[in-house]
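Please annotate the following for my students:
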Amino acid sequence: MYDTTINQDLFYRIQTAIHIDELDDTQPLQICVVETEKVMQLARKPVYGFVKRLFDLVAGLTALFVLFVPMMFIAIWIRLDSKGPALYTQERLGLNGKPFKMFKFRSMCMDAEKDGPQWAKKTDIRVTRAGRALRKTRLDELPQLLNIIAGQMSFVGPRPERAVFYDIFDTYIHGFRQRLMIKPGLTGLAQANGGYDLRPEEKIWYDIEYMKKRSVWLDIRLILKTEQIVFNHHGAR
């Protein structure tokens, strides 16, 4: 379990960013507990799982081929805009809590986490000029096509999160780790209904709803809705 006593600064930075109700001054780490289902029986869907993986592989390879040149231009733009590499990797938790390195285009300055892990904010001074445009259009997520092809992620599923934030959210969102029961995704029901504008306790409801109702048709609808979000920038940060 993440040590919230030693890392109070991190806890409060996240608390401020996600607008959790103010804490009691006398008990600074006791906050409102958000209940979710504590034990969820996940239905087995072998045919859907096969179709989903086949789609991820074929669509991922096709998208990478089509977008390779634009991605090269994005990488050059990032390198010219600020010091540091174009690609950024960060450890996230995947299926069954297995850690993996998630790829992104770098959208922040190199010393963005000099004070430790922080939750993204709407007006984050750590974001570079190129990064601001990339985040607004979600283009910073394109390198995750590599994670999808490798089978670490899917096009649709709960967004992968860092272990440190799982440990913190576990302190007030019962059942938050249930989202690790399926493969994380590039987009998902929560991302299509608010994205970064949602609090973690709101995201888990969407994630569990998706896990219960996941289907090829639902995945297609979410992918199409995400394409619209790329243009209207809803929920970007």
